[in-house]
Amino acid sequence: MSGLVLVLTVFLACTVEAVEALTIVLAAGTSRNWRSALQGTAAALLALAVTVAALGPAIGLIPFQALRLVVGALLLVFGLQWLRKAMLRASGYKALHDESDAYAKEVAAARAAAGGGRGIVTDWYAFTLSFKGVFLEGLEVAFIVVTFGNNQGSVPLAALGAVAAVVAVTGVGIAVRAPLARVPENSMKFAVGIMLTAFGVFWAGEGAGVEWPGADAALLVLVPAIALLGLGGAALMRRTSPADSPLGRPAAAPAKGTLT
User: Which domain of life is it from (predicted)?
Assistant: First the structure.
């Protein structure tokens, strides 16, 4: 895999996670208390840094062959989950994900929650909402960076893609102070599902001893093949979608920390 493909793949995957984390922080800050929301964000980033510092080096101790098999299997599971949901959304069997709707639901829940603080935190609800959202989405970002980086022997490049995604999403979010509803998140999730599935198949195969024709060039066949399978499956499902399908209606906000 070239460095550019690695950076772009990580960038796309991390952009999705960053948008979802931003939506949660914006909801906590605008409806409750910005100071507490930012305190929760900072605490989550600190907890993430400690977690990655503690567990990141341990991954490098795993034998390379076994690492590729395990990571490939995990990416395959995650990728198929993303791809399945993207196909359901594209075909009309599942409502399209809508960040504006998710934001509205988070705001409504935040305004209905009881107030109160603890210690230096004046609004505990805003703090915990931001902390959980940023930490759980951040764990997924860290997993993507560590797995892709270690497998390709270039953690700095993978980290560059993740940092670029987080900075871009945060910058736009600060500028507009609103959920990034115009980001083509459903299309991005389809693309990320395809990429994760392809890399999962490739790395799990290598870990199991498969010698791919052309080595990394085999991805140039795997990615389009899985894309055609996903798009074809969605098109076939769309032709048989029920009349009362949720196509075009806002989706319910996903559970925090889940891959959607």
Answer: Bacteria
Q: Is residue 146 part of a domain?
A: yes
Number of domain units in the chain:
1
The model's pLDDT over 35-58, given as tens digits with 9 standing for 90+, comes to 999 999 999 999 988 888 877 677
Cross-strand bridge partners of residue 121: 118
Give Cβ neighbours of residue 143 (< 8 Å, ≥ 6 apart).
none
Question: Are residues 245 and 98 in contact, defined by beta-carbon separation less than 8 angstroms?
Answer: no
Of 34, 18, 15, 17, which Cα lies nearest the Cα of 26?
A: 34
CB of 253 closer than 8 Å to CB of 106: yes
Domain extent for 113: 3-237
- 249 domain-assigned: no
Tens-digit pLDDT profile for residues 170-189: 888 777 666 665 566 678 78
Query: To which residue do tokens 């948008």 refer?
Result: 19
Can you spell out the DSSP letters for 227-238? HHHHHHHHHHHH
In a domain, residue 254? The reply is: no
